[in-house]
Amino acid sequence: MILKVGELTIHSDLLEESISQLSAQQLSIMPQWKQNIFVFLKSWFDEKDYIEAQTSGSTGKPKTIKLSKESMRNSAKMTNEFFDLGNGQNALLCMDARFIAGKMMIVRSLATGMNLTIVEPQSDLSDSLQTKYDFSAMVPLQVRESLHALESVKTLIIGGGPVDTDLDSKLREISTKCYSTYGMTETTSHVAMRAINGSDRSSWYRAMPGVNFSLSDKNTLVIDAPHLNVKRLETNDVVELQNNSFKWLGRSDFTVNSGGVKLQPESIEKKIEKFINVPFYLTGTPDEKLGEKLIMYIESQESSAIKKGLEKAFQTLDQYEIPKEVFYRESLERTESGKIKRIV
């Protein structure tokens, strides 16, 4: 295996030693995306039998959880065998290693001996796709922005959000074998696949080997995968289930999935409410580019005071948490108990 991170190239027989010798000072001068890679590798090679990972909110409020390294190896083995990935093949990591999708691309390469090229996560990956790759993973936004260059990748898995009808149709016209995946941090990456193109194209997500699905009393998906240390994990995803395959119908909560980043409106509202003193709420609305975009409704007329408050509030938010549009309304709809009724 050869690991390439920007201009840096490390051979597998020197990888663990090289990672262990990295100092905090050396890490601190790296760009954040590189830091995330080496921080993960340091934790992967340490003496602990687990790593800590941040959940995205698929099964509730985001939180930090422990994932066993054994489960991660089992997940990598499952994917590698499914796609017949092996030593000497070339893979591309173009996602943030803070998140499970990025971490698992690294683990799959370590497990098989695949050469792994890691590039800065961007929407348009045209420059990175000048080279041929056997395998890669992207979010729908990256796929859409890089569509003209995707045939440099032989097999592509797409996760972090649903593939919309328009993108699905466009992917049927290219030679790259494309799969939409379903999974989350709690399941150590994907537990189901849907072929987007080719002879096995389908609208159904099929369970990966060793994974079993059932329904909760709310018609939300429940996952059992003993080899991934997952036992009766109830999600917020409403599905139609048949023969251990499912069609995804939507979410049962207010989570907004924007460009593969899952946003929790209520948590972001808590940050904003310190700066404005009028009723408001955040919600998602369909967006051609992002899948969904975060927007804001405010119960007030537009004013300089509110604008100044929002400017200060937005400076405290992550870039993904800033609403793409703000709408002012004379009044917001409320429930009988007086709570604001969200438009979703």
Can you walk me through this structure?
This protein is an alpha/beta fold. It has 2 domains: about 1-250, Rossmann fold (3-Layer(aba) Sandwich), CATH 3.40.50; about 255-330, ANL, C-terminal domain (GMP Synthetase, Chain A, domain 3). The chain is built from 9 helices and 20 strands. Helix 7 links the parallel strand 8 (about 155-160) and strand 9. The N and C termini lie far apart (about 45 Å).
Question: Would you spell out the secondary-structure blueprint of this structure?
Answer:
Elements (H helix, E strand, L loop, with lengths): L1 E4 L2 E4 H9 L3 H5 L3 H13 L5 E5 L9 E5 H15 L6 E4 L6 H13 L2 E4 L14 E6 L1 H6 L7 E6 L6 H7 L5 E8 L4 E7 L9 E3 L4 E4 L4 E6 L4 E13 L2 E7 L4 E3 L2 E3 L1 H8 L7 E8 L3 E9 L4 H12 L9 E5 L15
Parallel strand pairs: 1-6, 5-6, 5-7, 7-8, 8-9, 19-20
Antiparallel strand pairs: 1-2, 3-4, 9-10, 10-11, 11-15, 12-13, 13-14, 14-15, 16-17, 18-19
Helix pairs in contact: 4-5
Family: Belongs to the ATP-dependent AMP-binding enzyme family.
Keywords: Ligase
GO molecular function, one term: medium-chain fatty acid-CoA ligase activity
